[in-house]
Amino acid sequence: MNYYEIGQRIRKIRKAHGLSQEELAERINISTTHMSHIETGSTKLSLPVLVDLASVLNVRVDDLLYDSPIAPTGRALEEILTIIDSCTPQEAKVIADVVKATKLSMDKYL
Length: 110
Fold this sequence. Notes:
By secondary structure, this protein is mainly α. About 75% of the residues lie in helices and about 0% in strands.
């Protein structure tokens, strides 16, 4: 396991969320120094810290561990759910149908 690469993924996602090391460290109850060491790969991070990081950064633990494109599931999914929460059941069904049709079309043509 390459802790430097994991740390760099955490750093990239943290910056994409507009958070400083200090802000992220505070949110997961670790020191800023420890957060810095995690991002540079100087220290191994514990499972609870890894889970807390994923939760605060709104990504899957896999997104932190493995080099894969960062899915926009975090903010995009949150935004979609907020919209759907304000819909009637009929409106939510229409939105679901539109999303399904769009995805099928993208799979076919992209």
